[in-house]
């Protein structure tokens, strides 16, 4: 069973999420502040975290950074902050998705399912399971990236974006196709997600992120992986 950690200091929201998630077969843990959330994540190892940013003891961004220090668990931010820069900050800190309050339960559950799917291993279906470049190696079967003899830590969303690109070497992958494949059909206009995550991939894998060699932008159209 999928285990969900709900982090929110509003009892009515926690109660609604717990009831709806348990009714759909999820195991649910809850925490009302950042310290308890980090402790619960370390003790219970959830499969996905639903996180409010406005916590009483620390900003939710600190919780994201704390989690990202040791785990790749999908993180869905649930927040009343609507500004675009707030969303970018959360994504840049390592969140996988952002849902604004008030929210529809069906939409949140759909995004939660999508986040869990992105984190699941995908069996290799071709003989070309390993992609080698001069600077890094992508093992599609093992879902591992190596650079300079060490593993590169990617979040589930970073991995899924990388996987779509490297499975289409030399081909232009449109912004809309990437958004649909990585986040889902309801995300076709969220181009800021792509900007943030492509910047993160470049920081982790490109020898010179400011002059990308492997992850090339086609302005106004999409991205291309040049192996």
From TrEMBL:
Pfam families xrefs = Response_reg, Trans_reg_C
GO biological process terms, alphabetically, are: positive regulation of DNA-templated transcription
SUPFAM superfamilies of this UniProt entry? CheY-like
List every position bearing 4-aspartylphosphate. Answer: 52
Taking every annotated instance into account, which residue ranges of this chain make up the domain Response regulatory? Answer: 3-116
Task: Please provide, alphabetically and separated by semicolons, the GO molecular function terms listed in this UniProt record.
Answer: cis-regulatory region sequence-specific DNA binding; identical protein binding; phosphorelay response regulator activity
| GO annotation, cellular component aspect | cytosol; protein-DNA complex
Record feature DNA-binding region, as residue ranges: 128-227
InterPro entries named in the record: CheY-like_superfamily (IPR011006), OmpR/PhoB-type_DNA-bd (IPR001867), Sig_transdc_resp-reg_receiver (IPR001789), WalR-like (IPR039420), WH-like_DNA-bd_sf (IPR036388)
**Which keywords accompany this UniProt record?**
Cytoplasm, DNA-binding, Phosphoprotein, Transcription, Transcription regulation, Two-component regulatory system
Q: Does the keyword Calcium apply?
A: no
Q: Mind telling me which CDD domains this protein's record contains?
A: REC_OmpR_KdpE-like, trans_reg_C
Where is the protein localized? Cytoplasm
User: Per its UniProt record, what PROSITE patterns does this chain match?
Assistant: OMPR_PHOB, RESPONSE_REGULATORY
Provide the OmpR/PhoB-type domain boundaries: 128-227
Q: What is the recorded function of this protein according to its Swiss-Prot or TrEMBL entry?
A: Member of the two-component regulatory system KdpD/KdpE involved in the regulation of the kdp operon. Upon phosphorylation by KdpD, functions as a transcription regulator by direct binding to promoter regions of target genes to positively regulate their expression.
Q: What is this protein called?
A: Transcriptional regulatory protein KdpE
Species = Mangrovactinospora gilvigrisea
């Amino acid at each position: 069973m999928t285990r969900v950690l709900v982090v929110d200091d509003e009892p009515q929201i926690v109660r609604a999420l717990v009831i709806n998630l348990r009714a759909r077969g999820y195991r649910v843990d809850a925490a009302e502040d950042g310290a308890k959330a980090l402790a619960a994540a370390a003790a219970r190892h959830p499969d996905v975290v639903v996180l409010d940013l406005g916590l009483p003891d620390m900003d939710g961004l600190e919780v994201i950074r704390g989690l990202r220090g040791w785990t790749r668990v999908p993180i869905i931010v649930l927040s009343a902050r609507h500004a675009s820069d707030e969303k970018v900050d959360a994504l840049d800190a390592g969140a996988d998705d952002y849902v604004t309050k008030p929210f529809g339960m069906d939409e949140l559950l759909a995004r939660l399912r999508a986040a869990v799917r992105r984190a699941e291993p995908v069996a290799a279906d071709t003989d070309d399971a390993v992609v080698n470049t001069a600077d890094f190696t992508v093992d599609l079967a093992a879902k591992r990236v190596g650079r300079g003899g060490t593993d590169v830590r990617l979040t589930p969303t970073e991995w899924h974006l990388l996987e779509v690109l490297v499975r289409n070497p030399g081909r232009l992958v449109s912004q809309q196709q990437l958004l649909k494949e990585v986040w889902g059909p309801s995300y076709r206009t969220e181009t800021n997600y792509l900007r943030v995550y492509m910047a993160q991939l470049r920081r982790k894998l490109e020898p010179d992120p400011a002059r990308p060699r492997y992850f090339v932008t086609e302005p106004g159209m999409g991205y291309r992986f040049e192996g």
